[in-house]
Amino acid sequence: MSDRTTIGVGMVGYAFMGRVHSQAWRSVGAFFDLPLAPRMAVLAGRSKERTEAAAAQLGWADVETDWRELVKRDDVQIVDICTPGDSHAEIAIAALQAGKHVICEKPLANTVAEAEAMVAAAAAAQGRSMVAFNYRRVPAIALARRFVEEGRIGEIRHVRAQYLQDWIVDPEFPLVWRLQKDKAGSGALGDIGAHIVDAAQFITGQNVLGVSALTETFIKERPLATESAGLGATGSAARGEVTVDDAALFIGRMSGGAVASFEATRFANGRKNAMRIELNGSLGSLAFDFEAMNELWFSTGGGGFERILVTEPDHPYVGAWWPPGHGLGYEHTFTHEIKDFLEAVATGADPSPSFADGLRVQRVLEAVERSAADGSRYTNVED
Amino acid sequence: MSDRTTIGVGMVGYAFMGRVHSQAWRSVGAFFDLPLAPRMAVLAGRSKERTEAAAAQLGWADVETDWRELVKRDDVQIVDICTPGDSHAEIAIAALQAGKHVICEKPLANTVAEAEAMVAAAAAAQGRSMVAFNYRRVPAIALARRFVEEGRIGEIRHVRAQYLQDWIVDPEFPLVWRLQKDKAGSGALGDIGAHIVDAAQFITGQNVLGVSALTETFIKERPLATESAGLGATGSAARGEVTVDDAALFIGRMSGGAVASFEATRFANGRKNAMRIELNGSLGSLAFDFEAMNELWFSTGGGGFERILVTEPDHPYVGAWWPPGHGLGYEHTFTHEIKDFLEAVATGADPSPSFADGLRVQRVLEAVERSAADGSRYTNVED
Amino acid sequence: MSDRTTIGVGMVGYAFMGRVHSQAWRSVGAFFDLPLAPRMAVLAGRSKERTEAAAAQLGWADVETDWRELVKRDDVQIVDICTPGDSHAEIAIAALQAGKHVICEKPLANTVAEAEAMVAAAAAAQGRSMVAFNYRRVPAIALARRFVEEGRIGEIRHVRAQYLQDWIVDPEFPLVWRLQKDKAGSGALGDIGAHIVDAAQFITGQNVLGVSALTETFIKERPLATESAGLGATGSAARGEVTVDDAALFIGRMSGGAVASFEATRFANGRKNAMRIELNGSLGSLAFDFEAMNELWFSTGGGGFERILVTEPDHPYVGAWWPPGHGLGYEHTFTHEIKDFLEAVATGADPSPSFADGLRVQRVLEAVERSAADGSRYTNVED
Amino acid sequence: MSDRTTIGVGMVGYAFMGRVHSQAWRSVGAFFDLPLAPRMAVLAGRSKERTEAAAAQLGWADVETDWRELVKRDDVQIVDICTPGDSHAEIAIAALQAGKHVICEKPLANTVAEAEAMVAAAAAAQGRSMVAFNYRRVPAIALARRFVEEGRIGEIRHVRAQYLQDWIVDPEFPLVWRLQKDKAGSGALGDIGAHIVDAAQFITGQNVLGVSALTETFIKERPLATESAGLGATGSAARGEVTVDDAALFIGRMSGGAVASFEATRFANGRKNAMRIELNGSLGSLAFDFEAMNELWFSTGGGGFERILVTEPDHPYVGAWWPPGHGLGYEHTFTHEIKDFLEAVATGADPSPSFADGLRVQRVLEAVERSAADGSRYTNVED
Predict the structure, then answer these.
(1) Are residue C239 and residue C343 in the same domain, yes or no?
(2) What is the CB neighbour count within 10 angstroms for residue A220?
(3) For chain A, which terminal residue's Cβ has fewer other Cβ atoms within 10 angstroms, N or C?
(4) Which of B97, B119, B135 is the last residue of a domain?
(5) Do C272 and B329 lie within an 8 Å CB cutoff?
(6) Model ipTM over 0.90
């Protein structure tokens, strides 16, 4: 490691996403032969006490209580944005203008306008920028992409994508920030629908051209959270309005001629993180469910569907880890993402997914919202 | 059997559906304690030679080459209609007017107008009438209905239904009658989409209120079939236009507040008969896939999904068959249907699904077609 | 059907096995193009009243209350033995000596000596004889045999077979005939262990050479059954000794060099009819579980295992039935068995499995019992 | 972290096991609230160059080329032994005598005599000692143990354990150290059979009392490895004898009355790391397969088997990680192991599994070898 150039990382936010990003920064060098050795330099958070505790636990050398200070620091070359979507644009643009490389959690922004500003800033900047659609780095999904590129399922006819969770089924679950439009932009749509739109576009290599959509908020009011909190937040007696969708369903057309069906919900009781995608092509099919993330199902169209255990050395990312059959977990998708990002930074290549990819997803989400508001009418995704 | 009154059955058509209905008529009395003993009296088909051969193989005592003759016969009290959809209305109405009981293959008719006429005829007739949505008689689906009725999954939030087949993926598969609008009414929509609409309405006890739809015909022209033939038909050099949908996708709302997603396609490579439905409720979830037809998946919303092997004596229909773990097959759904129909005939009760249920499905299909033609706009199902 | 020669069938016994055999005799001609048309001539049972009721329900034309009378009748050319194992030898030998063809339920007999006498009678007779190991006729198992014959999994290294049921887990389940050594010969070993030994030998084409075994009776005493009854028998206050094994485990060697593991139990709580077999070969593997009887799992040794839905037209037996994805059930294994038996009768070919095959299984069971009684010592299967 | 006492760790060996242990030492503090903060002080290996490279990559501060030096160092309080089994006893005893805590890879030793010496040394020492049967720390296995302790499956009747791999199916795979008796002690038996014996004893809380066993070496000679190498080793023209088993099968009895079946093999083509265990009890059953490591299957004996996604906050170890449905991987079993070990070191409690637990497994393996050598005769496990 001593021979490699080290590169300083500053991270903003230390909740769920900050914890998993930290684990990736900490681990990536032990498994991948990297061109740059990341140094976990600074963690930024609003509360000094909490940020220091988080930095100690997660392994960051220093803290800042204002992300603006983090962005200015000379020992930070990479800014990793793990905050809610409402601050993405401001932080990312400032970091890019300060000459930093930026990796930003998804969705890229809460609005198309913000996302466009971020893409413009990225285009004008010297640093690399990436939006963290980590599911692209599930080995099984990367393998699905490889199969499609190799033409193994032929011309794609159907995309069938669902992201099913159930963590707000209880009407007494409180009104956390993810249920407030001003913070989160949208509900299931932006939080998890964004992932399946990105995955569908990534695996197929096609864009969503247009959609017909329907959204629903099953529980209109919830107890106020005692603070803007995570999943474990406890409610209070006062209630507030849920301002985002609980579920979003849309059907549409892809640029290559496929028809597509999408569904994102937090009300699929018993489904914990069922991020699923199935593609049917003229020569075969592929199917994936994140609840069994080490498996990819592949058919060449006869009576069979092959369960591929995606733990073979020649599968994407897998060779760096363990022998066959020794599966990976959720966190490793982030390790792979950081690895790819560091390689892009080192070579100057455009990371995938870029901010432009993030904007493309944002435009689809925006078309979904317009269609849902306009009688589900088929609505083109704008360019 | 000698103590029971026998009842004469006449069947029209002897292709795929006729074969499976025959097996049900032949077997039902050996397993269920019936109020009426069916006698397989007459089979009707156009070609005398072929009809006689079919009758000999399938166990029918006599033949007619004109269904009008069959409908008149005194030894026929039940008319079983196994023809393509374009002749359902005419045969069913004639049979009802002749005082017969009628069981008719699905979809009830090719148009709403025909279906309405059939419902009117049924209302005016003395005989019982049933539309053969056989999937209601899959024990797992009947068990799902029982669970919903018992409130075990609570208030239903999501219906997610798919019917995936792949038998016309090959562009050289010929233009059989199921691909011609004048014979079949529609394509995947009426053939298999009808089943999932009926199953969704049956299990939830709710109606589809409105839909937003999109249909597609991937292969626009196919070789002409050498004759109006079954799945094994061979093509010829001449080509004709495919006039039905290859796939139909629609999203919508149910009368109880659930949102719903439907997809019917014959282009899901590797999916042979994946008639799937998942319900998510406030207390739990249910999931089914006909490719594993003896299983029902049930969750009460924690981290678990229970695979219920629906072969226990107290499961619907199962007690009449074998010990636990000795599964049933496709044909038994028809045996159950015939059993329920005979009981309704004996008691004078209204069979389920009635012609009215069939009309309700037809109205949903019609709304799907209108929405698809009108920019996927949300379209109410008319009453 | 009229062109074919009819052949009269007499069946002895009408309990569980008699019901499923009747359904096969009744149905086989409607699906398979048979050289002989079976006529369900006579059913034999001890109670006249019950036998007549069974005959009426199951479709037999006449009854006898003594199987000796049935065996003598001129309108009976085939004798189908569906009684407990203690009467197999006597009935089968008498039928063969009377010039009849014989199909006999498994296990062939309760002792090796009886089975040897049956094989000798079969060798001396003009009639064909078959032992009804119906699992050979599961399409997925027949397909597994085909794959092995074609060399697709190479040289077989491992056989791993289990037959798991749970119907006597409850200590209050009564002492039915299947739990009495004088009637049933043995417990799980002969009832279900016989099936996996036959399946292993059939699929691999190899014999079990020797075994090391261990048996156990978990519940030593049970309520006496009110009569020698089926699964639904109710118990009484008096108790009797369970004289058969509840579970049998054995490991051994096959004639082709594979090692093998077998387990038969009625105490695998939650497993209803999990008749499972897995083969690992030098080139690939095969796996099957009857609880999902329409599936065969196949690997060529990489990271994948293919779930083959055994419902394609070119799969064994399947072409006679329904389109792909429309699965078969337990009863169809008997329909296939009867079909193969009728073909063997018509052509004079030796049916498979023959009485000699049944004897071979019997010798394995006998070696298991000797090993279990002798400190699990490795025990050769005698020839 | 600064408030906690740090504790120095020295690790011997840096191959597969060393890599995964390093990741656990590096990560554990970020997720668990530990009483002691581990410091990755020293890595020992024979080649200075390679050890330094490994230390740099894996995050160890210093290196030694002789483990005896490592054991003496004052900055090392914990010795982590990741070498082949032939050196375990010597290193562990020296470390314990030097006052260190010891965590040692499994199997504890290559012989019972060595294991006994280690247990004696552990008893006499002040340090804590643990054998690294990491599968005890799979959340699903820990949950299975909890269910058994709570009596949820009742009295255990059956244990059915398999460990299936396929990495030496190819006869040209070279003669690596794991195929040599002097280095590895035994083959599949000690390497993976040890894991299922330990898991069976752990989950049931019962000991294996006696066994009847059979072992086999399918490929007797293999190309010599170019050096004592890992899985990727390439062969040479010269060949050597394989001196360990390729597969071991054994059946036996547990101290609580259950019968048990075990199979360990590296010739199960297509099975990559199928470490499977199923328990059947008087009230229910449990089943696990490591290839789907985040799932535990649970039945209460009706027709259902529940797939529990072991990612809920109240499942063992899981609360420290991610939200439900965001699965863990192979490496986390080691993180959990290290966490439990550090807690035992801090409190002075006996770690689980202790060296005594490791010895108990060793005695079972030794009984297996004696039985296999003695005609599979039932052989008591000695105490």
Answers:
(1) yes
(2) 11
(3) C
(4) B135
(5) no
(6) yes
